[in-house]
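Box 3.1. Reading complex inputs
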Amino acid sequence: MAAESPAPEQLDAAQASYERCRHSEAFLADFYEAFLGSDPAIRPLFAHTDFDRQRRLLQHALGLLFSFARRPNPNLLERIATRHGPAEMNIPAEQYPLFMDALLVAVRKHDPEASPALAEAWRAALAPGIRYMERYGR
Ligand code: HEM
C-alpha cells in the first residue's frame, strides 16, 4: 500500500526538498510559527521551550522520519515516540496532521521547487513515521 511504504521516487523527491530547505535557519523557525499557530492547544505546550535546542532536536528527528520511511526499524523512533506517547506528554493523535501541515507551510516558503506533487511526496514519505508516533502506546 502506498501509505505503508512510500514510492522510492516520492521519498527521493521529499528528501531532496528537505536538503534544499534544511540549511535555512528560518525553515524550522517558520515551521514552529505555523505549528504553534495551528491550534490553540499547542502553543501553551511550548511555553517553556528552548527553541534553539528544539530546532536542533527536530532537525535530527526529521532525519529519523526519513530513515524510518526507508527502513521501518522501530528503534529509530522509539525514544521520541515514548516522550510524546500516553505515558509521558500524551500528545493526542489528532495533533499529528497539524505537524505535517505546518511542515508543508515551511516547505512552500523555503523550497523554490515546491508544488502540489511535492507536497504529496512529503506526506507519503513521512506518513509511516508519523503513523508510528501517533499510534505508539495506544
Ligand atoms: C512526527 C511528529 C513529531 C516529531 C518528529 C516530533 C519531534 C520532537 C522532538 C525530537 C522533540 C524533543 C524531544 C526531547 O526533548 O528529547 C519534541 C518535543 C516536543 N514535542 Fe514533538 N514531535 C512531533 C509531533 C508533535 C506534536 C503533534 C506535538 C503536539 C503539540 C508535539 C509537541 C511537543 C512538545 C510539547 C515537546 C516538548 C518541548 C519541550 O521540551 O519544551 N510534537 N518533539
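In summary: The helical segments are 8-22, 25-36, 51-70, 75-84, 96-110, 116-135.
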